[in-house]
Amino acid sequence: MIFRAIGEDRPYPDHGLSTPRQWSDVAPRQVRLDQLVTTKRTLDLDTLLSEDSTFYGDLFAHVVEYKGVMYLEDGLHRALRAALQQRQLLHARVLVLDAR
User: Fold this and answer.
1) Which of 35, 67, 77, 82 has an alpha carbon within 20 to 30 A of 50's alpha carbon?
2) In whole angstroms, what is the distance from residue 73 CA to residue 26 CA?
3) Residues of 11-49 as b/e, b for ≥16 C-beta within 10 angstroms?
4) pLDDT tens, per residue, the chain with 100 residues
């Protein structure tokens, strides 16, 4: 299994970060692929195979940690590339949301 689970939505509250500039305040770190729950069930194959898929976006995947679960919000193509290259780690910006 590549991911912890495959999800269809974002089960956490809105965090207000929507642009790469806003996400850039969150420091990147390594996360294990098998700890991630995806928030998308499908991926456009063109995005996965594109040479410049990160040209206009953030270089790091975006992960939201909520109630002890890490959700892959953006960067599914990066995570799948890592898995295809037999890497178990992904560099991501991890936003920790308080569960209160």
Assistant:
1) 35
2) 14
3) ebeebebeeeeebeebebeebebeebbbbeeeeeeeeee
4) 799 999 989 999 999 998 889 999 999 999 999 999 999 888 777 766 666 555 555 689 999 999 999 999 999 888 988 998 999 999 999 999 986 5
Residue 41's pLDDT is 86
Say how far residue 11 (Cα) sits from the centre of its chain. 14
Amino acid at 73: E
Nearest to 16 by CA among 58, 64, 70, 69: 64
H or E element: which one contains 70? strand 69-74
- Region 5-9+23-97: CATH code: 3.90.1530.10
The residues near 70 (Cβ < 8 Å, ≥ 6 apart) are 4, 31, 35, 36, 37, 63, 64, 94
Q: What 3-state class would DSSP assign to 90? A: strand
